[in-house]
Design goal:
- The protein has 2 domains: about 150 residues, Gyrase A, domain 2 (2-Layer Sandwich); about 70 residues, Aminomethyltransferase beta-barrel domains (Elongation Factor Tu (Ef-tu), domain 3, Beta Barrel).
- The strands form 3 sheets. Strands 11-14-13-12-15-16 form a 6-stranded antiparallel barrel.
- The chain is α+β, with helices and mostly antiparallel strands.
- Helices cover about 15% and strands about 35% of the residues.
Length: about 290
């Protein structure tokens, strides 16, 4: 178990009687079905189905608390700000007001990912959210140090290893505005195909029911250290570039990458024109 300060992530809150219908038409997952204490993962898309950013939406009972990668915060805020016109909602900026600690190995809310509960840690109020690795704790910025002192310290590099081993892409590193959710294997986690219309829905649904994505998210077992952005070749053809790269205590150097679909799990590719690497189906095996 260890805790990492991730307060740099973007944080927003949506309040008002139309908060859920408001988000329902702007994100890819089903917000209106949420009940207090639960949440979901979703994407904000362009009309052509490309990812402006991804975010988590937590129904705390008092508000919808949103968090996202800092690099996507302004673009997501802009979409919400424009979309609020005519809706009985209010947007609240919380990035600087609230801290966020990721704690591995302990779940302080419910058993399912995105379950959340208001509780206290070190006598400070927190919103605890269940993650795939443990819990995320949202607290007021002035309380971060007191809450963090309750857990063994860790660092971002340790957390990144666990994320890559689990095969979870990160916006700004593995994902950008050129990516459609299905290419990154996000449909199951981030997309509802029963909720009705939202921005980008037509492209996402058409690809899901009738097509095959040109790219797919894969893992790579590297034979040597490499850097994000390194070119990946299958034979003479460039099939992608490295995204996240970490040195795993279990697996050695590993990476995530969006690669063209002709590059299949088990294929040996060349990274940066020289070092061989093996493509694998995610997630990386444990143990």
């Amino acid at each position: 178990m260890f805790a990492v300060d991730r307060s740099e992530r973007g944080k927003l809150a949506v309040t008002g009687p139309q908060a859920k219908p408001f988000l329902q038409g702007l994100v890819s997952n089903d917000v209106e079905s949420l009940t207090p204490g639960h949440g979901c993962y979703a994407a904000v898309l362009t009309p052509k189905g490309k990812m402006i950013g991804d975010l988590r939406i937590h129904d705390t009972g008092e508000e919808l608390l949103l968090d996202c990668e800092r690099v996507a915060l302004q673009a997501i805020f802009n979409v919400l700000w424009r979309g609020r016109v005519g809706m009985a909602v209010e947007l609240h900026k919380r990035t600087l007001e609230m801290g966020l600690l990721s704690v591995t190995g302990v779940r302080l809310a419910g058993p399912a990912e995105h379950d959340n509960v208001r509780t206290t840690v070190a006598g400070r109020p927190v919103v605890a959210v269940t993650t795939d690795l443990g819990s995320d704790l949202f607290c007021w910025a002035d309380d971060v140090e007191a809450v963090r002192a309750e857990f063994p310290p860790g660092d971002e590099a340790q957390l990144e290893v666990l994320r890559v081993e689990a095969g979870r892409p990160r916006y700004g590193i593995d994902l950008d505005e050129s990516v459609i959710p299905q290419e990154a294997g996000l449909n199951e986690r981030a997309v509802s195909f029963t909720k009705g219309c939202y921005v980008g829905q037509e492209t996402v649904a058409r690809l899901h029911y009738r097509g095959k994505p040109n790219r797919q998210l894969r893992g790579l077992r590297l034979s040597a250290p490499a850097k994000p952005g390194a070119e990946i070749r299958l034979g003479e053809k460039v099939v992608g570039r490295l995204g996240s790269v970490v040195d795993s205590p279990r697996h050695g150097p590993i990476a995530l990458a969006l690669v063209r679909r002709e590059a299949a799990p088990g294929d040996v590719v060349k990274v940066d024109g020289k070092a061989p690497a093996t493509l694998i189906q995610l997630p990386f095996e444990r143990g």
